[in-house]
Amino acid sequence: MKQYLTIVLLMLASCHAFAQDHTFLSDQGHERLLQIYQSPEADFIELITGNSKATAEEEYLRLYNLFIAFQVNERTLYANSFHKGLSHFETSFETNAHVGLMHTTLLIQQSLLFWNQDKTSEGARSLYKAHRLFRKLNKDDYPYDYLKLQSVFNIFLSQIPAQFQFLASLFGLEGDMEEGFDQLNTYVINTSQQSAINYEAMVLHAYCLLKFGRPDIKRVQLLMEQSLNSQSPLLNFIVASLSVKNRMSDEGINYISEIDKKTITSFPLLYYMKGRLLLNQLKPGSITMLQQFDSIYQGHSFRTDALMRQAWYYHLEEEVEMRDSLMIRVNKQYKLPTSNDKQAKKEIASLPNTPACLLKVRLLFDGGNFDKAYQVLRSAPPESMASYNVAEYYYRLGRINTELGRYNEATACFDKTIELSHDNTRYFGPYAAIEAAKIMLMLKDTIAARTYLEKARHLNNGEYQQDISRSISSLLNE
């Protein structure tokens, strides 16, 4: 008991110290940061025009606001104003500890804006510039803010592809994901008494979990509890996205249903997320949400994916004309900022030939409804399907059996998928081998796991080659 009390007291002391500590933002700056997270587009004119007599903090918060406001509808005007303002920021203020932290933060945000616009080289350049500046900072000046940025670099730089890691190390660009998440967790705890920067900390934490982490259900549930009343639509969207990643449709739907309508309307991506969660439950309200998103969203992220999911809905409803019109719209999309959008454009052509039961099973599986997915699949035996669809049948049955803990049955299904996949270029064969390898690793049979990974490598001659190769390399390292 003494040990637990000591830990609690240390945590409380840490929070108290942070509350008293002078961060690089003033009290007014904290208030402004809170407003940014709750109402990103509150003052359009001020956002765009700025103030020639602004202090470093005021200009930093304006640019920060532009970055957050861009997430709402991806207005090009916001991104352009951000880039222009950052160039001005770099030459207008004396370099010191707090300006250096501001500048580093803005450069990281700029890299994310560039990557959203498919400007890979520019994004990498901004991140490298941010890291070079960060290494000149003294962690003792503002230790908590330094810790936040250190965690970001550790997580982001851990994602450098293996073939570039040696070159990156020559420039000091090395990351450690586990250490980064530990640092980020510490930062979230230490900011718990400061609402503005705690929202920032939770957004950052949730975003990194979504993009790079493996959050467990309890962690997502805790984030839901902490963020529900934040009135921060961006935070709500990222946490709801985590419920999708973790196949927590019931919890995700309940979470978004508790958010007030004004907040959802102010951030259209929440309509997309609710539509997606409802579709994973095969609920009719999904189409209304996806259509609402389509009608008011002005950006490109997830638009192609949302159109594909509407086409899925009408395919299940056997409304062929509506499905086909949406397929045409998907094929006309040319800006594909997210991996979801890229995958949607690749997948859409095969939709008319996809049996409804396989699509239902896929959606139910993605929503975490494994028992219901199993029942749907078993009601349509493979003998009733065209031979082209049988490999997918066994692949999806294998995934369901894995989630239900039936590992022998799952492995048999994956073996059948591999057998049926030698003469086609779809992803089911290599991914079946990868899933079987995961089971073998869990059962401590490394020889069998390597055999399956070799099969995956042999079958990897079609869809998603890069992603499959990355999965194979990651499992070989395990």
Structure description:
- Helix content is 73%, strand content 0%.
- With 478 residues, it is mainly alpha-helical.
- Among the domains are: 201 residues, no CATH class; 94 residues, Serine Threonine Protein Phosphatase 5, Tetratricopeptide repeat.
- The longest helix has 20 residues.
- The N terminus is likely disordered.
Low-confidence segments: 1-20
What is the H/E string?
HHHHHHHHHHHHHHHHHHHHHHHHHHH
Largest sheet: none
By DSSP, the count of extended strands is 0
Which descriptor suits the 3D outline?
globular
How much of the polypeptide forms β-strand, as a percent range? Answer: under 5%
Total count of helical runs of at least 4 residues: 27
Q: What level of helicity do the residues show?
A: over 70%
Straight-line distance between termini: 37 Å
